[in-house]
Amino acid sequence: MKNLALATLLRPAAACLLAFATTFAVAADPEALLVIKNHRFEPAEVKVPAGKKVKLTVHNQDSTPEEFESHKLNREKIVPPGAKVVIFIGPLKPGRYEFVGEYNEATAKGVVIAE
């Protein structure tokens, strides 16, 4: 009898917790991954949803540092060799947002495309 009463009491709390967890999972920021390899960004084009904040993870697989720089995104971040950094961008209007690796501008080029 006590177990039944306890279960009845906990059921609404469990339902609220499930609703909260579902809302939190849906509300998570979209993510994109950029890899720096051989002084190039891979992929060179990253598509993201327009109007949403995006978590951009940049993983430098080279043995030298690189600097992610974008005047259009208003972001600048040094990425040490072998390290990962997170850069939040957006929400963005639909369009193209170029970025470069400042230390290797001739080869490290890319664009974020917000759609």
Q: How would you describe the overall organization of this protein?
A:
The chain is an alpha+beta fold and 115 residues long. The chain has one domain (31-114): Cupredoxins -  blue copper proteins (Immunoglobulin-like). It has one helix at residues 2-27; strands spanning 31-37, 40-42, 45-48, 54-60, 66-70, 75-79, 84-89, 95-101, 109-114. The strands form two sheets. It has a five-stranded mixed beta sheet, with no helix packed on it. Strands 2-1-4-7 form a four-stranded mixed beta sheet, with no helix packed on it. The longest helix is centred in the first third of the chain and has 26 residues, at 2-27. The radius of gyration is 21 Å and the shape is globular.
By DSSP, the count of extended strands is 9
Strand order of the largest sheet: 3-9-8-5-6
Task: Describe the main β-sheet briefly.
Answer: 5 strands, mixed
Which second-level CATH architecture applies? Sandwich
Helices and strands, in order, run as HEEEEEEEEE
Percentage of residues in helical conformation: 10-25%
CATH superfamily: Cupredoxins -  blue copper proteins
Task: Assign the structural class, choosing from mainly alpha, mainly beta, alpha/beta, alpha+beta, or little secondary structure.
Answer: alpha+beta
| CATH overall fold name | Immunoglobulin-like
CATH C-level class: Mainly Beta
Number of domains: 1
